[in-house]
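Give me structure tokens for this 331-residue protein.
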Amino acid sequence: MGFIDSTVTAVALPAMRASLDASLAQAQWIGAAYLLTLTSLVLIGGAMSDRFGIARVFAGGILCFVLFSLLCAAATGPGQMIWARAFQGLAAGVMVPGSMALVGRAYPKAERGAALGVWAAASTATTALGPVLGGALLGTGGPEIWRVIFAINLPLGLAALVLLRRFALADRGRPGTPVDFAGALLAASGLGLLAGGLTVQTAASLPFSLAGLAVLCGFLLWERRVPNPMLRLDMFRNRAFAAANLTTFLLYMAITGIGFYLPTVALSAWGRTPLEVTLAVLPTAVLVAVLSAPVGRWADRSGPFIPMALGALVVTLAHAGLAVFAWTPDF
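Here you go.
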């Protein structure tokens, strides 16, 4: 749910804009509000999992995510949708860290790469499946069918809560461990101001961006001084850890960026149908689902460097191909 809702609006955005009477900037914020709060609060979600118990926080995040998804489905205007998406992202930020942590806890080190490969297949494939689901729904219903995209989280969330019930009752966490809420507020404020500067097409764009960078610098200074930081900066002294995070940041920026803009351009500028866009992005989801687990086992045997480097090369070549074919858009 958390990953698919980051991209599911890509194909549905033109229909949502028409239904909610949203401007282009508001449409951007329908996606950005979710990703912004998710990105800002995923670290605090991990810290809360340590404090209150991984399964408990995971279950609480799922419950809140379902409730805010229903608010998205019931939105009647762009402002309501943006706020509902922001709170949905907040719930996802609490929810998402628990899934990987539970997998890491359940498997020994020798089998963890394959297990996390399955986790990556589920998360990345659902991210890629977002436009597929959105296009399939739009191709079968009326102008308000996009609301089903969010309402479908209700049965999915209830099923997940049933599966988690036994684990949540047994997981007590570490009582007394402080949580860095001030750091979470600084991170969310800095990223919000920076995102505002990048989307507001007025003279306020530069001040917003500079203010965002200043607040993010303050966040880093706070994390250096606070006894229990949300983000331990000393971890980045480990070159392998720093390189892996930088690589992941760049790859996901490329993948999620094209996941938003390509369907939107194909529908709005190229005049393609939702079904055509669905078929165009479907191979990505299928290949991710098929290859993630075997590549995880490969990483267990050979180490992560070669798979990550090869994957980055493939993504680079694929995006170069997209840049060439976008001049003559022919699916």
